[in-house]
Structure formats: structure tokens, C-alpha cells
Amino acid sequence: MPTKEIAGKTIEVDAEGFMANPNDWSKDIAEALAEEIGIAPLTEGHWKVIEFSRNDFSATGEAPTLRRITKQAGVPTKELYKLFPKGPAKKVALVSGLGKPTGCI
Amino acid sequence: MKKLVILGAGTAGTMVANKLSHMLDLNEWKITIVDQDETHYYQPGFLFIPFGIYGPNDVIKPKRDFIPAGVEMVMSEIELIEPDKNQVKLVKDGRVLPYDFLIVATGTTPRPDETPGLHNGEWRKSIHDFYTFEGANALAKHLRTWDGGRLVVNIVDLPYKCPVAPLEFIFLADWYFHKMGIRHKVDLTLATPLPGAFTKPRAAKLLGNILEEKNIKVVPDFLIERVEPDKNVIVSYEEEEVPYDLLVTVPLNMGADVIGRSGLGDDLNYVPVDKGNFLSTKHDNIFALGDAANLPTSKAGSVAHFAAEVFVENFMRYIDGLEMNHEFDGHANCYIESGFGKGILIDFNYDVEPLPGKFPLPGIGPFSLLQESEMNHWGKMMFRWIYWNVLLKGKEMPITAQMSMAGKWA
Ligand SMILES: Cc1cc2nc3c(=O)[nH]c(=O)nc-3n(C[C@H](O)[C@H](O)[C@H](O)COP(=O)(O)OP(=O)(O)OC[C@H]3O[C@@H](n4cnc5c(N)ncnc54)[C@H](O)[C@@H]3O)c2cc1C
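ok -> C-alpha cells follow
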């Protein structure tokens, strides 16, 4: 596993930069990752999605799909595209410190 | 008598009913299978109907022909599954079926209603689908007199059954319009929520190249929000517009509503199961097989077939209180029709992406993997015969359930 300096910590990541261990995550790391992908600073809207996704992950073991975030957290898909433009599903997972979503196909 | 109830007599339910009717002692077990539809559809054949390669009669047979003696078949819609009472309520005559074990095999269906503007006045006029029997036949009729324009194939969302079917459709459309002499008047576009032609990298690359060679445009990362049928455009959540004259949609796919109603499903009515043995994560006497399960692999007949083989071995142990020691690896094996009498074969599982090489098939093969060939096209055409005569009847196939690396170039 490659490692990477994020917010002053050495973190294990996969080839595409998704964190290997969700427990390494912190709010500072989220801010730093958001900065890297150009969506900083994180707003209340972002945090609602991130918190939902982390909680959902600990319950299901998987990063939630957009459909699931929309239905369960009540954030419209359109809003998700505004908060995390260009590929929101991946960006939500990345900033939330979860593995890359499994495009099940 | 112990009772086994199978919900859905499609590909998975029928295969399992056949296998288990031979394996279980029918003096001790009563097997009941339920379905709402008298007709078994060979769904992979829907792909060929729009282009006149198959007619309606090539893809239908009575379900009863495939249900073995000794298995009771009940024709009814399923109203509710009540896991706490170990029973299933049927619509017809209010019948109640108690069970000791339940197998859910109710599949997945396209839901055009879920996308605004899709299922409106233009449905089956300038907007078509080929994922249903009616849709494929209506599209065949439409294409016979269509004289060209912008044909857009749009995949609404993941997951959908037979992930390669939209690509095959567009490859065949390219061939069909060439044959009709109007290819120069047709603009072919694939608008997909995926970042490319397919998810798995090496297959995506090969398929992407073939699309380019055939002059088929790809609009990647396109998640549709709505159709504006008056303006003839589909619009994504990012307000990107793709104009069409003929829209061929692969609507959102969802598991049966009865799964949702019964509290057994996820957001898309798929039953969460252990991906190695198909046991429900919530109930220890319910299994889900085929498209109805939330497995992280393709929703395809071939997957249902490999899964069924693993399932029956485990089931025979499970009912005797033994540990389930066969683990499903997500094996999928798909022929991709690529037009002009050629095809591609891909073979993969949960962990191994489709790789190039040769696929050894005793007595028939080898087929070339991840590469176009005429042999692969014949494999696809032969599959219909195999489906009706071997697969559904639960007979042995010369392919192992476990994916093999033999012949693959890693
Ligand atoms: C266009 C197209 C092309 C395809 N091409 C291929 C291919 O090339 N290769 C491949 O391997 N696969 C292919 N597939 C996929 C394949 O057909 C399916 O994956 C397979 O049929 C799944 O089997 P199943 O038993 O899970 O579901 P199904 O075969 O769909 O069966 C589900 C059954 O449940 C019944 N049912 C559902 N709800 C209820 C209810 N409430 N009450 C009573 N009955 C109910 C239905 O009537 C149906 O008979 C293709 C599919 C399509 C649409």
C-alpha cells in the first residue's frame, strides 16, 4: 500500500488516493482532501453528506450510492452535484475517508 | 414434510427447482415455485429482436415446460413475504404458503417511471427500450421505417442487468444501419453514467476502441436527471444536454416491489446477502439468487447459473446443520455481440477483471477472450439452445462454477 502525507499525518491510500483505513480519518484530513480536489472549504452541506456517509459505512460496510444519500440523508442529487461536482459518488467517498465505491457491474 | 418455497420461476428459480428436485428426497420435502407470468422469456434474445434477427416466437416458451415433476407450480402474483411468520402471501385466492426455507429469485425489472419525462406521451414513439419483450418488439417495428437521425442509447443508473447489453445494442445498430444503407445518415451516441464504455479497465479499453472504430460517440459520466421530450434532449444532473431523434433507454432497474414491501430489500429492492453463499443477512432461512440479490457482480444469467451450482451444494449441507463450505467467487462469463457476425467473450469474477487469452471449453472451444472473433458470435447464438435445453433444466455444463485462470494472460 502506498502512503501519503495528509494534514501532517502519514496515511495509507490506494492507487487512486482513497484511504485504506476509514479509522485513520479525521475532520482535518477531510479538509485537506477537500482542498486537494478543489472543493474546500467544507460547508455545513458537505458535512451533512460526509457524516451520513461515514455512519452508513459503519452500518453497511460500503460507501453509499448517490441514490442512497439522496433517499436516506434527504440531500437532492442535484445538490450533491453542486457540493461535489464531477463524479460526486467518488468524491464523497474520498473526502469521507472511505474506500473507492464498488461500481458493481 | 419440510417445505421449500421458491419465489420466481425465471432463470435462477427454474434452474434451482430442477437441481433440487433431483437432490432432495421428495418424500420428505415439498417444493413449491411461484410466478405471476405463464411465459418464460429468454431475455438475452431481446437484444436481437429490434434488428429482426429474432422474432417474438424465438424468445418465449411456457414456464410449465421447465418445471420438473414433483415440484408444485403456483401461478400468482406474490403479495407479501412475512419472514417473522415464515410464510408468503399470494394474491390469488389469498393463499398462504408456509415455508421452512425460502429462495427469493424474483429478478429485476426496468422502471421508466423513475426518470421524469421518460415514460410520457413519447414512450414507444421517439423513446424506446429493449429490456422488455413489448419494448423490443415495438422498437423492431419502429426501426423498420426509421430513416436516420441521432440515435442515443442512455443507461439511467447502475446496477442494471446484463451490463454489456447496451454496448451490444449499439454495435448491432451500427451493423444494421450499414446493412440498410443508411449508416451515413445515423449518428450513434452512448450516454452512460460510467467513466467509459465499461467499469473494468482492460475491457473498458478494448470496448472503447471498438466504439471509436465504429464511429460511435461516448458521453461518459452522464447521470440523467430528466428527459425533455418536447425539446428532444436528455439532461444530466449537471445540466449537460444530449439531443436525440430516437432515444433508446435502459431505465433504472429495480428488484420486485414485493421485496421492498416485505422489508427485505435495500434502496433498490435488492436482498442483502452473503456474497459467498447467498444467505440473507437478516434471516437464516432465506436465500436470494440471481438478479434479486445485491451481489457486487454482474446481474446476468451466467452468474445466476454459476451461483446456482454453488448454492445447491451448500443448501444440501445447510439443511443437515452442516457448515456451508462452497464459496461463490462472483464468476461471470459473457459473450458480447459486436456486429458483422463477430463477438467478444469476457470471463471474470469479484476479484479478477476480464483478461485476454483463450477460454478452453471441452468439446467445443477454445473461444478467444477479450478479442473479437466469429467463433464468439456463434457462441452467443448457440447460447439460446443451451439456455432452453441445458441451463434451465439444471443439467451439467462443461464450465466450472469457480472461475479458472487457465488460458488467461494475466
Ligand atoms: C436485453 C437483455 C439481454 C441480456 N443478455 C444476457 C446475456 O447475454 N447473458 C446473460 O448471462 N444474461 C443476459 N441477460 C440477463 C439475464 O436475462 C438475467 O440476468 C436473468 O434472467 C436473471 O434471472 P433471474 O431468475 O434472477 O430473474 P428473471 O429470469 O427475470 O426471473 C424473475 C421471475 O420472477 C417473477 N416475479 C417477479 N416478481 C414477482 C411477483 N411479485 N409475483 C410473482 N412473480 C414475480 C417474474 O415473473 C420472473 O419470472 C440479459 C437481459 C436482458 C434484459
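Chain A has a mean pLDDT of 91.
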